[in-house]
Specification:
Radius of gyration of chain A: 13 Å
Strand content of chain B: over 45%
Order of helices and strands of chain A: EEEEEEEEEEE
Distance between the termini of chain A: 36 Å
Structural class of chain A: mainly beta
Largest interface: A-B, 25 and 21 residues
Distance between the termini of chain B: 41 Å
Order of helices and strands of chain B: EEEEEEEEEEEE
Helix content of chain A: under 10%
Number of helices of chain B: 0
Number of helices of chain A: 0
Radius of gyration of chain B: 13 Å
Largest sheet of chain A: 7 strands, mixed
Oligomer: heterodimer
Mean pLDDT of chain B: 91
Shape of chain A: globular
Low-confidence stretches of chain B: none
Chain lengths: 111, 113
């Protein structure tokens, strides 16, 4: 099993550009999450999904959109990137009962 | 609302010394508690978890943590630090097992030779 994978690993954007981060899991988990990690702030939840076709806002959802059209995939979109969105983004998944499993992260820089 | 405090953003210990990383939480209900480790340029990996069974929880790589309800703490310890333990450690709390984790800010552990 690959676990949780994220694409791409690195990306540099200019202010105002858009992009989509892809998260895939092969563990048949119900729940999926997108976090951002910034120095000294731990992980902050952006959006999450409790099942295919459902999404919900987390702690810091502004400027991001998500979709979960298939159970194994969770996409995070930035419609108009801003320098404040420079961060490391982590995807995670979990079963109905159990701990979260994390992907390796995507390092995004917005110039 | 739940919250997690980790005392000390950076802890340094000598190789072979005791490792103690502190975690305090606030929660209105008995929580589930977790410690994750993050090695440089990697994702988070579960070290151990408390799920209301034994209060002393043993994890991977020789780490353990004790749940103390009266102190609302879940401190992480290891008797003897190894160079390979150098990483960032995150404590997390969840009201439900598997959902809506709240992470602490993290503690970076350095191990000195």
């Amino acid at each position: 099993n690959a676990g949780v994978t994220q694409t791409p690993k690195f990306r540099v954007l200019k202010t105002g550009q858009s992009m989509t981060l892809l998260c895939a899991q092969d563990m048949n988990h119900e729940y999926m999450y997108w976090y951002r990690q910034d120095p000294g702030m731990g992980l902050r939840l952006i959006h999450y999904s409790v099942g295919e076709g459902t999404t919900a806002k987390g702690e810091v959802p502004d400027g991001y959109n998500v979709s979960r059209l298939k159970k194994q995939n969770f996409l995070l979109g930035l419609e108009s990137a801003a320098p404040s969105q420079t961060s490391v983004y982590f995807c995670a998944s979990s079963p109905l009962v159990g701990e979260q499993f994390f992907g390796p992260g995507t390092r995004l820089t917005v110039l | 609302a739940q919250s997690v405090t980790q005392l000390g953003s950076h802890v340094s210990v000598s190789e072979g010394a005791l490792v103690l990383l502190r975690c305090n939480y606030s929660s209105s209900v008995p929580p589930y508690l977790f410690w994750y480790v993050q090695y440089p340029n990697q994702g988070l990996q579960l070290l151990l978890k408390y799920t209301s069974a034994a209060t002393l929880v043993k994890g991977i790589n020789g780490f353990e943590a004790e749940f103390k309800k009266s102190e609302t703490s879940f401190h992480l310890t290891k008797p003897s630090a190894h160079m390979s333990d150098a990483a960032e450690y995150f404590c997390a709390v969840a009201p439900n097992y598997g959902q809506n984790f709240v992470f602490g800010p993290g503690t970076r552990l350095s191990v000195l030779p």
